Amino acid sequence: MIYDDDLPHPASRRPFNDIKESHAMIFCLLSFTTVISLIISNLSDTSFSSMRALVVTKYAHPTQIPLDKDAPEPKPSSDRVIVEVYSAGLNFFDVYLTSSRVLLSSLLLSIASVAQTFVSTMKQISNSAAVSLHLRRRPGDRVFGFSQGAYADRVAANWKQMLPLPRNMTYDQGAGLHITWPTSYEALVGRGELKPGDWVLVIAAAGGVGLAAVQLAKALGAKVIGAAGSPEKMEICKRYGGADFAVNYTTPDWQKEVRAITNGHGADIIYDPVGRIRDSLKCIAWKGRAIVVGFAGGQIEKLPLNLVLLKNIAVTGIFWGAYDVFEPERYHTVWRELLQMIESGRVKPIVYPEVFDLEHVGDGLRAIEERRTWGKAVVRVRPDDSEAARAKL
Q1: Does the CA dihedral 47-48-53-59 come out positive or negative?
Q2: For a disulfide at 285, which of 102, 228, 266, 315, Cβ 3.0-4.6 Å?
Q3: Residue 142 pairs with which residues in a beta bridge?
Q4: CB pairs under 8 A, 24+ apart, for 281-285?
């Protein structure tokens, strides 16, 4: 999704500190941009005049944002290459950003705003980028990374942040890889210090990051309880994620069920991407670790610190978007270990069965908003002709 720099803002919108209000939305999206998966296949200086893209020029619900069929082409630079998009990931926070239903502070917006993800083929590079790119990637390599503006035919992506896409992954699977999976891995391993035999409670376990967390925890030897909002999604936690148990967090006293499952021990790790840490503290174990992954529920919680003290627990956050800046060595370690797990088949990205086309991005985001999706919802911009996709036929 592309955002116009001259985007007008409604009078009711809350201003950010030290940031011009007309640019606040742009600031947030540039902070976290998009996840990509792309193929390098053509280094020629191919020229395009226009393309299809979702361009946001005014605040509106995603279903009211028309597809621009004559959008301006992105330009290559010293660190960005032009790629053709195959698949793009859909993310809940785009609904809030496009419709200006943003109630968080500027800092938390920067932390929370993960935009689109995509898969593509490289078409155009600058001379300075070509020299550096040649040292790391070859024409025909399948890679993934992130950049803004993935709901489009083409996008300018930073080649420095590209990694090899596993051969056993389709474009659709790759579109949901970059933020979802390393966030879950580092949350559990780095921040949660997961050990084999730990009881792990995953909130919203049928979602994109939730299913990733369930699979990773199981693969690393944990006993996993998936918490979901309906019987159907409870079944998804077990069928596609491999959860040992599932509970419905919309029912009264669901925490008692968690305690019963763990024979009174409680959850050693609570993984929460939606904002239910407060409720979950009722079933956390002594010296447990509660991991704040996000606020998809729309509210920032206030926690009773007396429980943090009395239960001798740790509450920690995970902000994967800044690891390449503050912890570059850990960033590469996580990716190396995670890709090994994916390539070996120990874990597998799950894509929501209904794949949307570029003309129906708004419908896809509405489906996420209404909690109708599970796994990773994806937009397919062009057909997947990869070896991995053919193998699934």
Answers
A1: positive
A2: 266
A3: 39
A4: 281/307, 281/308, 281/311, 281/313, 282/255, 283/201, 283/255, 283/256, 283/258, 283/259, 284/311, 284/313, 285/199
- Beta bridge partners of residue 155, listed in sequence order: 83
Query: For residue 309, what is the enclosing H or E element?
Result: helix 305-310
What is the full per-residue pLDDT of the chain (393 aa) written as tens digits? 654 443 433 333 333 333 333 333 322 222 223 333 333 333 334 455 789 998 888 888 888 888 999 998 888 888 887 888 888 888 877 777 777 655 443 333 322 222 344 444 445 554 444 444 444 666 566 777 777 788 899 888 887 777 777 888 888 998 888 889 999 999 999 999 999 999 999 999 999 999 999 999 999 999 999 999 999 999 999 999 999 999 999 999 999 999 999 999 999 999 999 999 999 999 999 999 999 998 877 778 889 899 899 999 999 999 998 998 999 999 999 999 999 999 999 999 999 999 999 999 999 999 998 889 999 999 998 887 765 665 665
Burial readout 92-101 (b: 16 or more C-beta within 10 A, e: otherwise): bbbbbbbbbe
CB neighbour list of residue 22: distance below 8 Å, 6 or more residues apart: 6, 7, 8, 9
C-alpha span between 293 and 390 (Å, rounded): 35
Structure tokens at 292: 């704040």
Residue intervals in the chain for CATH 3.90.180.10: 2-177+349-392
Q: What is the CATH number of domain 2-177+349-392?
A: 3.90.180.10
CATH class of 180-321: alpha beta
Q: Which H or E run includes 202? A: strand 199-203
- What is the sign, positive or negative, of the torsion defined by CA atoms of 62, 65, 67, 72? negative
Edge-to-edge, what's the strand order for the sheet holding 67-71? 2-3, 51-56, 67-71
In 3D, which of 364, 263, 382 has the Cα closest to residue 61? 364
- Angle formed at CA 216 by CA 354 and CA 184, multiple of 5 degrees: 75
Q: How far apart are CA 247 and CA 152, in angstroms?
A: 39
Residues carrying CATH 3.40.50.720, the chain: 180-321
Give CA angle at 217 (211, 223), nearest 5°: 110
> What does the DSSP assignment read for 12-68?
TSPPPTTS-HHHHHHHHHHHH--EEEEEE---S----S-EEEEEE-S---GGG--EE
